[in-house]
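Q: what sequence does this backbone want?
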């Protein structure tokens, strides 16, 4: 007798989620398709100011505005969020000469924005609007209007700000990244603004966590192995670097090298007879994550840090990377 295997029915909640995501994707695709010279003009204005970008909006647009301000600030464009209602009660003083205003309102008729708009016009601050209505009060007052295309909200009633706020958020991200690339904002700049958390740790440089100065185990190439072992033991890295007469790193001796050359004459031998002549090295400006990967790939626990002339500047142990949270 054949058994009928029933198909698993998708949860109604997942069906709703797919519909919401599909609706918002349609909105984002329309936004991308309708980008025009206004976007480039907005980037020009924001890139040219000497002060900060003040981002403002009310309600859900205000929450998006706060996030856009944070993204701008963390990617090299000084920015702040000003609540439009608070602006009317003294926070307009946060807007200064040299600033620009980025105002968000889906309808473009948000009453609470009136004082911010008037202040921007009075003091000739560049005003950029993100709105869905070209003929709204906000759009008509703005120097540049970034229009949101007509798109259905994702809720079943078509009322809750969903697709519209997603488009605003994406447009803010696009402005931030365009400004980042226009200014040549680098990973070094990014690390300075993100020193904490996992992201900051990923951007740590070798120079940030290496040992330098007297902590680096180094001996001249004329040194006897017995003395090199003493230096190796004193510094506790499990290796010692060998430098030639010009101060360049000529080789390295590890615990493994000593075991491979074990014999009656080992202690009296010169380090040049025992050392590995092609040690793994790294530059101080390399990412610490790259150093960790090199150590893992080569089954070693330490790397000498050298300059362009191959002169030792420091040493990095795998435990230094792990202590810094790089793994």
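A:
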């Amino acid at each position: 007798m054949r058994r009928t295997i029933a198909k698993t029915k998708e949860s109604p909640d997942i069906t709703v989620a797919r519909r919401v995501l599909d609706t918002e994707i349609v909105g984002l695709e329309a936004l991308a398709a309708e980008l025009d010279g206004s976007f480039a003009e907005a980037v020009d204005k924001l890139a040219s100011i000497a002060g900060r970008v003040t981002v403002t909006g009310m309600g859900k647009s205000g929450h998006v505005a706060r996030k856009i301000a944070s993204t701008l600030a963390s990617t090299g464009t000084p920015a702040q969020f000003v609540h439009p209602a608070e602006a009317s009660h003294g926070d307009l003083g946060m807007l200064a000469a040299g600033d620009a205003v980025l105002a968000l309102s889906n309808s473009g008729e948000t009453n609470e924005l009136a004082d911010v708009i008037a202040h921007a016009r009075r003091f000739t601050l560049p005003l950029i609007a993100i709105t869905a209505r070209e003929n709204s009060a906000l759009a008509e007052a703005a120097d540049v209007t970034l229009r949101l295309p007509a798109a259905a909200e994702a809720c079943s009633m078509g009322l809750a700000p969903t697709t519209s706020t997603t488009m605003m958020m994406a447009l803010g991200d696009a402005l931030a990244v365009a400004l980042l690339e226009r200014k040549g904002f680098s990973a070094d700049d990014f690390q300075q603004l993100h020193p904490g958390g996992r992201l900051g740790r990923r951007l740590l440089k070798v120079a940030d966590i290496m040992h330098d100065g007297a902590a680096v185990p180094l001996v001249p190439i004329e040194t006897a192995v017995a003395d090199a072992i003493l230096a190796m033991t004193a510094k506790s890295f499990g290796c010692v670097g060998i430098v030639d007469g010009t101060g360049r790193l000529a080789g390295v001796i590890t615990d493994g090298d000593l075991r491979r050359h074990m014999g009656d004459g080992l202690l009296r031998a010169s380090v040049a007879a025992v050392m590995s002549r092609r040690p793994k090295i790294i530059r101080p400006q390399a990412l610490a994550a790259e150093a960790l990967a090199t150590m893992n790939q080569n089954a070693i626990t330490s790397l000498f840090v050298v300059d362009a002339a191959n002169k030792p500047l420091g040493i990095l142990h795998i435990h230094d990377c792990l202590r810094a949270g790089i793994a």
